[in-house]
Structure formats: C-alpha cells, structure tokens
Specification:
Elements (H helix, E strand, L loop, with lengths): L30 H10 L11 H7 L5 H4 L3 H6 L1 H20 L10 H11 L2 H13 L5 E8 L4 E8 L4 H5 L2 E7 L6 H4 L3 H8 L5 H12 L1
Antiparallel strand pairs: 1-2, 1-3
Fe (ii) ion (FE2) binds next to loops.
C-alpha cells in the first residue's frame, strides 16, 4: 500500500493502483480495497501515509495513564490493545504471506510437514479453507506451528485476536476473512475469496516462517 497523497475521506479513482498492477493480479484484493482503506482511515493534518495499517496505529496519541505506569489505565486499555495490536500483527503477517507471483505449492520441509500433519497438500487446503469459511462474523483462519508438539495446526481466531497470543501457535499463514478483505471483488461470497486466495499465497514466505520457528 503506497502513499496516496490524498486528504482524509477522499477516495481514490476506481481501479487506481501501481502501473501494471492490475494485469499482474489474477486474484483477490484489487487496489481499490487499499485505496478505500487509505482514504477511509482518519488521519491528522499534515501526516503522511506510508501504509494504511502502519499509520493507523502510529497516529494513536500516547495515553497519559499508560505512560505514567497507571496499572488501572493499562488494564482498561487491554481490549483496545488486543484489537488494534492484534490487527497490526495479523495484517503485517498477511501482507508478507501474499504475492502477485504466488500460488502453486510449497516445497521442501514445509511440504513434508504438511503431508505429515494433514495427509496431503489438498487435504490441508480443504481444511484451512473450511475453517476460514466457517469463521462466524469477522476473524482469521491460520496455519500455525505448535512448538511443543513440533506439529502444524490449523486454527481460527475471532475479530483481530492474534494467533500466538490467543492459542500459543506460532503464525505461519493467515487468511483475513473480515468482509473488508473481499467484498469489493466477491461481495459477500466468502467461499469464492477463499478459493481464489490460494493463487496468491507466497509459499516462500510461509516456508521462511516455518524454518525460523523451528530453530
Ligand atoms: Fe483486514
């Protein structure tokens, strides 16, 4: 998501995006989604917009109670931390899990682990798709790693709950199933979005995350 240079509330032109981006994008989240997010988020006067989700949190002013070590204030902020902090963690992972040149199948030890823990790559895809489609309301579907068991696991989280903070699983691949992730291209048909997202999964990134969390 690049800098839009527009003021708050001003939406970009339909279909606008990096030159040639549309032709490389056989999938999923068109540039329009990013444009809308960027225009929709409130921003203080004069602030830039390097990344929608980045600036969304960077703009939050420091709470006096929080900074002063006020434990009651810190406890009161936990729901906001869970939601906004979780959203930041989830989307930061999500962006790197995707690539316009993605798709296909993983290789090497990640593929071996998928076959070991789910039977086959197809069975894994079916299971993660079913779990993600089945999230009630807004949330995320995940492939995570249980370090104690040394096993891959599929899980879902509600809202913006972060996978590791909620389940202990180390996140490898997250699928955003908030309606904002797909409604511009797929309306309310979440299963169609889940079918298409496999075309843009960056398996190199997922494999790197798997290798890193095994160390
Ligand atoms: Fe999202």
């Amino acid at each position: 998501v690049g800098s839009s240079g527009r003021s708050a509330g001003e939406a970009g032109p339909e279909g606008a995006g990096p030159e040639g981006a549309e032709s490389r994008r056989p999938w999923c989240c068109g540039p329009r989604t990013s444009e809308l997010l960027c225009a929709w988020l409130p921003r203080p006067p004069g602030s830039g917009c390097g990344c929608c989700l980045d600036c969304r949190w960077r703009w939050q002013p420091c709470s006096a109670g929080w900074c002063a070590g006020d434990v009651t204030a810190q406890v009161a902020l936990q729901p906001a931390l869970r939601f906004n902090g979780g959203g930041h963690i989830n989307h930061t992972i999500f962006w790197t899990n995707l690539s316009p040149n993605g798709g296909g199948e993983p290789k090497g030890e990640l593929m071996e682990a998928i076959k070991r823990d789910f039977g086959s790559f197809e069975k894994f895809k079916e299971k993660l798709t079913a779990v993600s489609v089945g999230v009630q309301g807004s949330g995320w579907g995940w492939l995570g790693f249980n370090k104690e068991q040394g096993r891959l696991k599929i899980a879902s989280c509600s809202n913006q709950d972060p996978l590791q903070g909620t389940t202990g699983l180390i996140p490898l691949l997250g699928i955003d199933v908030w309606e904002h992730a797909y409604y511009l291209q797929y309306k309310n048909v979440r299963p169609d979005y889940l079918k298409a997202i496999w075309n843009v999964i960056n398996w190199e990134n997922v494999s790197e995350r798997y290798s890193a969390c095994k160390k």
